[in-house]
Amino acid sequence: MPVNDTKATGHLFEKPLEACPLCGSPKIRRLHRIERFEPAFTVDRCASCGFIFTNPRLTHDAMTALYGRDYYTGASDYSYYDERETEQYARHVWDSRCEAIHRFIHGGNILDVGSSFGGFLKSASKYYRPHGIEVSSYAGGYSISSIGPTIHIGTLKDHPFEDNYFSVISMIELLEHLPDPLFALRECHRLLRDGGLLLIQTANMAGLQARLQGKRYGYYLPGHCSYFTKKNLMDALTACGFSRIKAFHPVEFGLIPKLKKSRGAFTSVWHYRAWLRIAAYHYISKIRFGNFAATSSMVLYAFK
Ligand SMILES: [Zn+2]
What we know:
By secondary structure, the chain is α/β, with parallel strands linked by helices. The chain has helices spanning 2-7, 60-65, 69-73, 87-102, 119-124, 137-146, 181-191, 208-213, 230-239, 255-262, 274-284; strands at residues 28-34, 41-46, 52-54, 109-113, 129-134, 151-153, 166-172, 192-203, 226-227, 244-248, 288-289, 292-293, 297-303. A seven-stranded mixed sheet has the order 6-5-4-7-8-13-10, with helices on both faces. Helix 4 (87-102) runs antiparallel to helix 10 (255-262). The longest helix is centred in the N-terminal third of the chain and has 16 residues, at 87-102. Zinc ion binds next to loops.
């Protein structure tokens, strides 16, 4: 496993943080030790703002090593799926998301940060000129061949894109991977034109689901280091200059595309029983008032 390779070099973790990376408060408390991965890691919670973060952080090299080929093929302990294998099913969700964005923004350039194999950008190219940033050369290299040279293999810190260039920027299940999420939000604000839209999907740690599951919550992963409450994220977006924020629970499209996508993992007719669970989760996610939310799924649309 790549992380263990890095362990051999003796530089797996950074020096522990002594203040909250979101609000700067020194009042940070140990929250959980997550032991289901090797190596185990710890997460702290800020007593001032409630932001949860991995502490100490993995080093940049250890973090990058997570996203090699093994990450996408399921060969590592911590892995993602290779979206190309179930693309025809995932397309239902990607297309629905593009229709939702199109209700607000009708054209221009789109940037998908964490664009993976480019599946979402292929759907987005119906309305927008596709651009991507992808840290993995394995996934990014593939999307350069299918989408073109507008995919940058790297990060928000070393990209070639100019200010005010994009009408839409998406960060789908990406922000939780970033050790400096405030930098990313400011950078997205700079890259967006006035009125442009930043789409963020990440877990809401204030959701009852995350609070009840505690350290068993599946979002605690070696590659995740920033865990927001909805209020954390809305406050951060406002501080970074976004003028209007719209929240969706669980997501900004309906149940049907999710059911169609789930079929990609089905190998027997019995697997259709999962539709009951998916539908229940979808409708339970709509239960919310104030800062209370029954589940931890959310999508925010923030406008510059
Ligand atoms: Zn804080």
